[in-house]
Amino acid sequence: MGTLSPAPRPSVADIATQRLLPREAPLAMAPGDLRKNRVPDRIPAPVAPAMAWRRGLILLSTAALTAAGGYEMYRVLEVGGVTVLEAMVLALFLVLLAWVAFSFASALAGFFVLLAHRPGAIAPDAELPGIASRTAMLLPTYNEDPHRLTARLRAIIESLEATSQGKLFDWYVLSDSTDPDIWVAEEKALLALRQAVGTPRLYYRHRAENTARKAGNISEWITRFGGVYDFMIVLDADSLMSGRTIVRLVHAMESNPSAGLVQTLPMVVNARSLFSRVQQFAGRLYGPMIAAGVAWWHGSEGNYWGHNAIIRVKAFAESAALPQLRGRKPFGGHILSHDFVEAALMRRAGWGIYMLPTLGGSYEEVPPSLLDFAARDRRWCQGNLQHLAVVPARGLHWVSRLHFMVGIGAYLTAPLWLLFLLLGMLISLQARFVRPEYFPKGFSLFPTWPAQDPVLAIWVFVATMGLLLLPKLLSLVLLWLRRSVGRQFGGALRASAGVLAEIVVSALMAPVMMIFQSIAVVEILAGRDAGWQTQRRDDGTVERRELYRKYGIPTLCGVAMAASAYAVSLPLLLWMSPVIVGLLFAVPIGALTAMPVSVSLFVTPEERKPPPVLRRANELSASADLGGNPALVELRQDPALLAFHLAQLPPPRPTRPDTVDPNLAVGRAKVDASETFEQAAAHLSSREIFSILNDGPALSTVLRKQ
Predict the structure, then answer these.
(1) CA 191, CA 16: separation in Å to the nearest integer?
(2) How many CB atoms lie within 10 A of CB 480?
(3) pLDDT tens-place string over residues 637-669
(4) Among 515, 179, 532, 574, which residue's Cα sits nearest to residue 371?
(5) Three-class SS string for 98-148?
């Protein structure tokens, strides 16, 4: 079972009569409506007193820290009176400090939760509960590598079959791929995978039109096949889950009939570049404490991250249909960050949204470089800013609205931090070069001196940095207190050195991300759509030209800041150096962090002792045949694959002249004008081949060419 292409293959006749889709079981999706004003079918249970005081504690702690920090900042600025620029700095500081304090309070709660209860991931050999529900495993994909995709999927299937509960699960690969070569490669890989695992419950569906992207993909599946299933588990192309975790998720849903969704905490794996290894280490060490904190006060009003979660199909169909937002892109149209909205709509209907942060057995990957991360982050930024139109929706739980505001704030804080720094620089430049008006108009016994308290300013800065860094140190304290966990990270000393190194590397990359996110916000507000790009999942090596082009703006910002700070004074330049250094050296930092490395400082438990499902997935990925021919060549050379491809196409529908696909019409004309198959294949564009692949007669015409 080490390859994805075992023999013997079925005959052409067998394939031609076989569709890798089950019989349809329609389940209507309720119309998406953000203005719903009726009482939901399920009345949300009242908030328990324990949950009320937990949330009150988080909010009061946030308010107290913000008020205390704001007062100290006012004392810094009020020496000699608060000017207009200083008032703007104070206002920005209050907003940004509230953001930092809120995150700190939640992380601190997670520290005490783990310290008091010491929950850990369920032992791998613990007895599994019995389950009886039917569950669909959904894997949406968009132009991903089919071989790696099916390698991960096969590892999950084998892991689940090993639990002896596999007969209760059906598997769906839901393709939205627009690259014709990838589309045909998916079909070939899925045929091989179905033979390898020997299960007839592995299905494949390709959409010719990827309306509403991933959310539309899931919605279309529900309306066609969802009626026969109790639950669905949604995966991403880089998702990996153990069979035991999947069984426990189903049991959790069966044990709580009011639960609409249960989210796991995916751990990052397979990191190779310095950037991804830092992200992997940070997520593995800090993530459980942060997740424990939010789960502690979210309760049944949790959130959804779009993957590695189990969902009650009936609840999703009845309440989570997404509307189209009014207006033009980027704010209008289909909602990009659909997962937050789906969770909020399900909670509005009374279904509980929960998180199990210590379940374990759930994994994902991260982009290999800062540029790849920024590209994905750009799309998330647009999706989160779209939530500005969702926040006022009727009937939402206030915690759901808070999730939206936190998501929006995650991106608005970047330009706010940048503005905060620029205003501080402007005040320093004004004090250095602009002649102060010591005796303003009107009666005054004393002159107005532009001044701040530098000593108190240092203490305010130290306290703010403490709120940012203390959660990382608390995670390290938990590791020191648990020797078994420390050994999983290569020892407490190595983990401690890793934390210090992670802080340094992250501090160098943070100013660049601040610039990237600020640019993204400006572009989105200006009306530029992010589109839908495929995420790169190989190594993070970036060409030199792209490095200079992408990191040029951050570097210029660093030059401008350095020159402005030095024009005021050398101490100000040193004070601003943590930001300026990261910007000035953006190009080498971007290049170095994108390179594959093997750094022992950032060791994680999954790296030292890979879980079986991860080890199996990596073995299959390494042994997979990555070669392949163009789509038309593959279909011409493989009659069984061609028969399967034709069997997957929907029956032809009558078309009106105004609905004819222009790519298909042009493609047909090129085929007719070509004398040989090689000429036709060479002259067709990718979009024309894609249209021909969706049309059986046109495809047959191409392949019959000599």
Answers:
(1) 13
(2) 14
(3) 999 999 989 988 887 776 666 667 888 888 889
(4) 515
(5) HHHHHHHHHHHHHHHHHHHHCCCCCCCCCCCCCCCCCEEEEEEECCCCHHH
Exposure string of 253-276, with b = 16+ CB inside 10 Å and e = fewer, is bbeeeebbbbbbbbbbbbbbbbbb
**Cα–Cα distance list, 356 to 120, 132, 233 (Å):** 11, 21, 15
Structure tokens at 165: 């509960």
Q: What is the amino acid identity at position 362?
A: S
On the CB side of 540, CA atoms within 13 Å amount to 29
User: Given the structure tokens 């495809």, which residue do they identify?
Assistant: 699
Query: Which residue's entry shows tokens 């962090």?
Result: 593
40-69 burial: b if 16+ Cβ within 10 Å, else e: bebebeeeeeebeebbeebeebbeebbeeb
Q: For residue 248, give Cα distances in angstroms to 126, 220, 378.
A: 11, 27, 35
Q: How far apart are CA 373 and CA 535, in angstroms?
A: 9
Q: Please state, in angstroms and as integers, the Cα–Cα distance from residue 223 to each residue in 29, 220, 258, 323, 430, following that order.
A: 6, 5, 22, 16, 63
Annotate 22-74 with three-state secondary structure.
Answer: CCCCCCCCCCCCCCCCCCCCCCCCCCCHHHHHHHHHHHHHHHHHHHHHHHHHH
- Residue 662 structure tokens: 């222009």
Q: Can you read off the two tokens belonging to residue 682?
A: 């060479």
In angstroms, rounded to a whole number, what is the distance separating the alpha carbons of residues 495 and 477? 11
Nearest Cα to Cα of residue 191 among 2, 18, 13: 18
DSSP letters along 548-563, please?
HHHHHHHHHHHHHHHH
Helix, strand, coil content of the chain in percent (nearest 5): 60, 5, 35
Closest CA to 696 of 660, 633, 642: 642
- Tokens at 34, concatenated: 């953000």
Contact 241, 163 (CB under 8 A): no
Residue with token string 């299933």: 229
Q: How far apart are CA 537 and CA 269, in angstroms?
A: 12
Q: What is the pTM for the complete model shown?
A: 0.89
Amino acid at 536: R
Region class of 361: left (phi > 0), else alpha (psi between -120 and 50), else beta: left
Q: What average pLDDT does range 65-74 have in this prediction?
A: 92
User: What's the pLDDT at 470?
Assistant: 94
- Whether the CB-CB separation of 703 and 677 falls below 8 Å is answered with yes
Which two tokens mark 390? 């969702």
DSSP per position, 371-427: HHHHHHHHHHHHHHHHGGGTTT-TT--HHHHHHHHHHHHHHHHHHHHHHHHHHHHHH
φ, ψ dihedrals at 598, nearest 5°: -130, 95
Query: Using an 8 Å Cβ cutoff, are 374 and 533 in contact?
Result: no
How many angstroms separate the CA atoms of 247 and 168, rounded? 10
Task: Note the pLDDT tens digit of each residue in 454-497.
Answer: 677 777 888 888 899 999 999 999 999 988 888 999 999 999 99
What the block records as the tokens of 552 is 């040029």
